[in-house]
């Protein structure tokens, strides 16, 4: 027999349950390189190796996608990293007097 004034025998004590927060991963974005008619293919390969850590074969494959399809995904990253990559690529291209552009798309 329970001798408590509260149902379940808690005597007015608060019951604390550990609620697990529902965390969702941060949004990710695709870094997309866009084709133009002026940037040399070798420069595009160099940019892919330098800023996206691709080896020569992979960089050449992505460069050919940019060339033939008009654009290609260079990588998928959390928002801040993707924004940094786009800025780095675009600034580097301008510094070397090429019109190469990259942009973001939601993943």
Structure summarized in a few sentences:
Belongs to the ClpS family. The chain is an alpha+beta fold and 107 residues long. The chain has a domain at 36-106: Ribosomal Protein L30, Chain: A (2-Layer Sandwich), CATH 3.30.1390.
Attribute tags:
three-stranded antiparallel beta sheet; 107 residues; alpha+beta; Ribosomal Protein L30, Chain: A
The CATH architecture designation of the domain at 36-106 is 2-Layer Sandwich
DSSP E strands, number: 3
What's the CATH topology label of the domain at 36-106? Ribosomal Protein L30, Chain: A
Low-confidence blocks of residues: none
What's the CATH H-level superfamily name of the domain at 36-106?
Answer: Ribosomal protein L7/L12, C-terminal domain/Adaptor protein ClpS
First CA to last CA: what distance?
Answer: 60 Å
Proportion of beta-strand residues: 15-25%
Rg is 26 Å
Report mean pLDDT, rounded to a whole number: 90
Query: How do the strands of the widest beta sheet line up side by side?
Result: 2-1-3
Structural class: alpha+beta
């Amino acid at each position: 027999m329970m001798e408590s004034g509260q149902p379940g025998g808690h005597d007015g004590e608060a019951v604390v349950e550990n609620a697990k927060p529902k965390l969702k991963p941060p949004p990710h974005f695709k870094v997309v390189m866009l084709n133009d008619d002026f940037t040399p293919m070798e420069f595009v390969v160099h940019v892919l190796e330098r800023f996206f850590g691709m080896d020569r074969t992979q960089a050449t494959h992505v460069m050919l996608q940019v060339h033939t399809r008009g654009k290609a995904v260079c990588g998928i990253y959390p928002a801040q990293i993707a924004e940094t990559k786009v800025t780095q690529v675009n600034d580097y291209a301008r510094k070397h007097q090429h019109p190469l552009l990259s942009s973001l798309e939601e993943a």
